[in-house]
Design a protein that fits this description.
The complex is a heterodimer of chains A (432) and B (94). By secondary structure, chain A is an alpha/beta fold. Chain A folds into three domains: 4-66 and 105-175 and 291-354, FAD/NAD(P)-binding domain; 180-283, D-Amino Acid Oxidase, Chain A, domain 2 (2-Layer Sandwich), CATH 3.30.9.90; 368-430, no CATH class. Chain A is 37% helix and 27% strand. In chain A, a hairpin with a 7-residue loop joins strand 12 (207-215) and strand 13. The longest helix of chain A has 20 residues, at 316-335. By secondary structure, chain B is an alpha+beta fold. Chain B has a single domain (4-90), classed as Alpha-Beta Plaits (2-Layer Sandwich). In chain B, strand 3 and strand 4 form a beta hairpin. Chain B is globular and about 40 Å long. Classes of the chains: A alpha/beta (432), B alpha+beta (94). The interface between A and B is large, with 55 and 37 residues. Chain A: GO terms for molecular function: oxidoreductase activity. Chain A: Residues 368-432 form the FixC-like C-terminal domain. Chain A: This is Nitrogen fixation protein FixC.
């Protein structure tokens, strides 16, 4: 007998689990398939988790979710060579209960989130790779797995199989990924004694620090580096556009080493012990990179649909939101007794249009092409900012007016006034 | 210089002995490829340049990121699948 479910969810990351959880809560019969040993064992993220989407599903998640620290302080560093200019924002009113962002370790968080979904009634099968979609008359009716007699059937299949989404590509729902549409992120988890870590970063209790680093550290490549504090470890890594890495021709782990050895970073992680090295692709296609996300009997959520807002370091919250919206689409169609065809499932797109997900991605739709074509933002300006601060802050007997004049002259040597004006306009337009 | 093996040594894997999940389709194409970018950009160093112009592939340390197949765009010479369920990298922290 064919086993048939209301819905099959492929993948147990935040997107898939949000979808499965929402469906199960509404009383639907859901099976979720995960290729890892446990949910999260294949998943990598920076990782800062924004809580708003999770909170909609599990309002009291703070009680028992494996959260590392709440991000009380955010720093942005603009690096040039061995110097940096930075900003710091600390919200002292924040606490564990009111914070909206937390550092997490995905292998632990995903497992917890999945446990919540299973408690809600989701049937989770791990160690099972979905190898293909089963179609009938061009309509997805189920999935083929690598288990013996592993075919499963459902009214609708939700693909939450991550950035590479082999299934969507195999089924012809989307084309191959291009090197300028993804960034390669490499990361290490470096363990440091909790007391040392708290002293170094100036935090107490569950406070955490997130540092975002841009500038010449990426050698002109479109990318950023980061350092996030966990309970007794830091996540340190960087992500650069694959197309740029290809041009640079340097192994990604060597970039990671240069980051770890940067004079601003080295003292923060010294004495630490690396206990894991991870790599992951990050969708960077933005609004224009979003593939077809629904069709006859299928929908795509999260990374698999390129739902990442890299400018704001948001990804897993977009995955959860889109997982939820896909699930709500299924619930609504089911309620009115509709078919899960392309026409009905277009409701998913409508829901996305009304959510922050597509609104934000549309807002930044031109951002990437500006940064890819105008390298001044990644090299010239970090240099200008750093050298200007250096000379303005240096006390050497030169009067301030002369210093200002020299600084201004130096800036114009690197970029003309018209150039700066054009860049500013370009940047402004790219975020309209 | 840092060796990638030192980094991979910290990771947890369950290797599917004798069943690599990534394969080079046609070794001849790799010999003719001028940049062999896979040997540079694979974050786990799975691809290595041989003494002759061949490329060798050992997937044991693979981090399953997908970089190799995205950058081998012009030749499309990599057969990329996920490991069988339960095998491959098992992130402890992620």
């Amino acid at each position: 007998m064919k086993e048939k479910f209301d819905c099959i969810v492929v993948g147990a990351g935040p997107g898939g689990t949000a979808a499965a959880y929402t469906l199960a809560k509404a009383g639907l019969n859901v099976i979720q398939l995960e290729r890892g040993e446990y949910p999260g064992s294949k998943n990598v993220q920076g990782a800062v988790l924004y809580a708003h989407s999770l909170e909609k599903m599990i309002p009291d998640f703070r009680k028992d979710a494996p959260l590392e620290r709440f991000v009380a302080e955010q720093r942005i560093w603009i690096v040039d060579g061995d110097s940096y200019v930075g900003t710091t924002h600390r919200a002292n009113s924040l606490n564990w209960q009111t914070a909206d962002r937390y550092t997490i370790l995905r292998a632990q968080f995903d497992r917890w989130f999945s446990k919540k979904a299973q408690e809600a009634g989701v049937l989770l099968i791990c160690e099972t790779t979905v190898t293909d979609l089963i179609k009938e008359n061009n309509r997805v009716i189920g999935v083929r797995t690598d288990r013996e007699e592993g075919d499963l059937y459902a009214d609708v299949v939700i693909l939450a199989d991550g950035v590479n989404s082999l299934l969507a590509r195999k089924a012809g729902f989307r084309r191959d990924i291009l090197p300028h549409e993804v960034a390669l992120g490499v990361k290490e988890t470096v363990f440091i004694a909790q007391e040392t870590l708290e002293n170094r970063f100036g935090v107490v209790d569950n406070q955490g620090v997130a540092i975002e680093i841009v500038g010449t550290i990426t050698q002109g490549m479109l990318g950023t580096a980061f350092l996030y504090t966990n309970k007794e470890s830091v996540s340190i890594g960087m992500g650069c556009l694959l197309a740029d890495l290809k041009k640079k021709n340097i192994p990604p782990f060597e970039f990671l080493e240069s980051l770890k050895n940067h004079p601003a970073i080295k003292p923060l992680i010294s004495g630490g012990e690396t206990k894991e090295y991870a790599a992951h692709l990050i969708p960077e296609g933005g609004y224009h990179g979003i593939p077809q996300i629904y069709g006859e009997g299928w929908m795509v959520v999260g990374d698999a649909a390129m739902f990442v807002n890299s400018i704001h370091r948001e990804g897993s919250n977009l995955a959860m939101e889109t997982g939820m919206l896909a699930a709500q689409t299924v619930i609504e169609i089911k309620k009115r007794g509709g078919a899960f065809n392309k026409e009905q499932l277009s409701l998913y797109r409508d829901k996305l249009e009304n959510s922050f997900v597509l609104k934000d991605l549309r807002k930044y739709r031109k951002f990437h092409s500006v940064f890819r074509t105008n390298t001044h933002f990644l090299t010239t300006y970090p240099q200008i900012v750093n050298s200007s601060f250096f000379s303005l802050l240096k006390v050497d007997g030169t009067d301030k007016k002369t210093k200002e004049r020299e600084t201004f002259k130096n800036i114009l040597k690197k970029r003309s006034l018209t150039g700066i004006f054009q860049d500013a306009i370009q940047l402004w337009r790219a975020t309209r | 210089m840092i060796q990638v093996e030192e980094k991979l040594y910290q990771n947890r894997y369950r290797v599917d002995e004798g069943r690599p999940h990534i394969k080079i389709k046609d070794r001849e194409i790799c010999s003719l490829c001028s940049h062999k970018i896979c040997t540079v950009l694979c974050p786990a160093g799975c691809y290595r340049k041989g003494t002759d112009s061949a490329v060798s592939l050992i997937t044991d340390g693979c981090l399953e990121c997908g970089t190799c197949q995205v950058i081998c765009l012009e030749h499309k010479n990599i057969l990329w699948e996920y490991p069988r369920g339960g095998y491959g990298i098992l992130y402890k922290f992620g």
